[in-house]
Amino acid sequence: MITIRDIMDFTESFAPLSTAADFDNCGLLVGSPLTSVSKVLLALDITPEVISEAADMGAELILSHHPVIFNPLRSLDTSSPAYLLASNGVAALCLHTNLDIAEDTGVNICLAEALKLENYTLHPENFLVVGSLEKEVSVREFAAFAKDALGAVSVEFTMGDKSVKTVALSSGAGASSFEKAAALGADLLLTGEAKHHEFLESKNSGIALMAAGHFATEDVAIAPLKEKLSKAFPEVSFIKSTALKAPTEAV
């Protein structure tokens, strides 16, 4: 019999909770570690649709990247994900910033693999991976490649002053790592989302900044995580959510 505790012990081996950022809220946020599991649903986010999907398939646990409880709860509405998890008897294990910087199946490592970076290095203190492309390309060419490789809804970017060979990656909301990426010799920083002033700063610096969507730059890690868990626990069925899609659209 496999329990949630067994799965937690395994995830500790490659994404220990002690490595999570101070502001974060990771770990088992709903449910008991003693619960036995036969099915686990994996998703970037825990939404009502994902909870319904888990309940319909008889999954005892949802493993997500984004925490289902982030800020302290002052009330519990019956439509909130935390309430729906508890009322459906589904537990929630959330691996957030500790998974971002994991060396094995970490989010930024998976992002680097998806974008075909070579000779890349993880810089966990900066939430960055820096590597090189097989050949030098223009910023626009790399944007088109990234959009296709990640299945991104859209890609925004500044041009920078030169073509791209060395790329820094910081999944999700990683544009604040721009100066660190530049100091590490990157020609371009690709992240999920960036603010207007961050794009302006990148234009002034001459280093390109690219935003491919929070969902697209992080969902890329869910399938590899599913495969890793399936190998470790062959008696448990690990399933990637089909109910969860990127929340935005573009024209």
Could you characterize what this model shows?
The chain has 10 helices and 11 strands. The mean pLDDT is 96. It folds into 2 domains: 4-98 and 221-240, 3-Layer(aba) Sandwich (Udp-n-acetylmuramoylalanyl-d-glutamate--2,6- Diaminopimelate Ligase, Chain: A, domain 1), CATH 3.40.1390; 107-217, 3-Layer(aba) Sandwich (Udp-n-acetylmuramoylalanyl-d-glutamate--2,6- Diaminopimelate Ligase, Chain: A, domain 1), CATH 3.40.1390. Helices cover 33% and strands 22% of the residues.
Share of residues in helices? 25-40%
CATH class annotation of the largest domain: Alpha Beta
How many E strands?
11
| H-E order | HEEHEHEHHEEHEEHEHEHHE
Largest sheet: 6 strands, mixed
**Number of domains in the coordinates?**
2
Mean pLDDT across residues: 96
CATH architecture descriptor of the largest domain:
3-Layer(aba) Sandwich
Strand order of the largest sheet: 5-6-8-9-10-7
Please give the alpha-carbon distance between the first and last residues.
49 Å
Question: In a nutshell, what does this entry contain?
Answer:
By secondary structure, the protein is α/β, with parallel strands linked by helices. The protein has helices at residues 4-12, 48-57, 81-88, 97-100, 107-114, 139-150, 178-183, 196-205, 214-219, 222-232, and strands at 27-30, 39-43, 61-64, 91-94, 118-123, 128-137, 156-157, 164-170, 188-191, 208-211, 237-240.
